[in-house]
Design a protein that fits this description.
Layout: H1 3-16, H2 22-32, H3 36-41, H4 49-63, H5 68-72, E1 74-77, E2 80-83, H6 95-106, E3 116-119, H7 125-134, E4 138-142, H8 145-158, E5 162-166, E6 180-183, H9 196-199, H10 215-227, E7 234-238, H11 244-254, E8 259-264, E9 270-276
Parallel strand pairs: 3-4, 3-6, 4-5, 6-7
Antiparallel strand pairs: 1-2, 7-9, 8-9
Helix pairs in contact: 1-2, 2-4, 6-7, 10-11
Length: 282
């Protein structure tokens, strides 16, 4: 069967089952070991029987809820491929906007080791991308040793000057040592309905933030005064679309003399809440 026809069949099957049609392309590219350009060039080629069989196995697994990223082993993020596993949250495109904001604010500034901190290492998408884009050292913390192991594998492949600490939120950090605090903490409300692809295959430790989804923001801010320097530069949190006002109020209450704000994502939804010192250079 020609690749184009098989791809069309798979896309129809996925859409009928309520999955994304684009998943068929990702799976087929993985089977053929080509990129999207290569796939488009080869659409009129015949699919070999063993390739068709492997493709069918991947399709069935995805139809049964296994994320495409777990099947192909990686997720593209900010122009780089990050290895993922069931031990880590799959990086989302929305988090690239957190990277864009932080790098835009800090570009050209110099920081010492331990001054830029990412809480919630996961795959390493945030900490490694910040280190690579800024050319600055980054420290990151995660409570899961399995997640840290995945992030270290990504560091070996991608590079980036990152120090990994295992522990609960800010606990491993020294007093008054941090100037930039970045986090995409678990923020999903405990009774929120998720797709089976997410609920059954991604770590709940990285998804759920208590009854109202705000538990980890409260804990981060409660301990932030201990670890932040008096001249801290920036706090930036990714948030759920309905959490902007509440998290901003938490920041204002904790740091009443600094500028706070809410930024919307490309879809017009609240995505980032930040606190930034007014007397720091742009």
């Amino acid at each position: 069967m020609r690749i184009a026809k098989r791809l069309n069949q798979a896309q129809t099957m996925l859409v009928t089952a309520g999955r994304e049609a684009s998943s068929a392309e990702w799976l087929l590219m993985h089977v053929l070991q080509i990129d999207r350009t290569g796939l488009l060039i080869r659409l009129s080629d015949e699919l070999e029987p063993e390739q068709d069989l492997l493709f069918s196995e991947y399709l069935l697994a995805h139809l049964n809820g296994v994320p495409v990223q777990h099947l192909i082993g990686y997720q593209p993020f900010y122009g780089r491929n990050f290895r993922v596993s069931p031990a880590v949250l799959i990086p989302r495109p929305e988090t690239e906007e957190l990277i864009e904001f932080v790098t835009g604010r800090l570009q050209g500034e110099t920081f010492q080791p331990g001054e830029i901190v990412d809480i919630g290492t996961g795959s390493g998408a945030i900490c490694l991308t910040l280190a690579l884009e800024l050319g600055q050292p980054v420290t990151t913390v995660d409570i899961s040793p399995e997640a840290i192991a995945v992030a270290k594998e990504n560091q070996q492949t991608l590079g980036g000057e990152v120090t990994f600490l295992e522990g609960d939120l800010l606990a491993p950090l020294a007093d008054h040592s941090v100037r930039v605090l970045v986090s995409n903490p678990p923020y999903i409300e405990e009774d929120e309905l998720l797709s089976d692809v997410v609920f059954d295959h991604e770590p709940h430790l990285a998804l759920f933030g208590g009854k109202d989804g705000l538990v980890f923001y409260r804990r981060l801010l409660e301990d932030s005064a201990r670890v932040l320097r008096d001249d801290f530069r920036l706090i930036a949190f990714e948030i759920g679309h309905n959490q902007g006002q509440e998290v901003q109020m938490m920041l204002k209450k904790r740091y009443p003399t600094v500028e706070t704000g809410i930024l919307k994502d490309i879809n017009g939804k609240d995505r980032i809440v930040y606190a930034e010192r007014k007397d720091c250079p742009e």
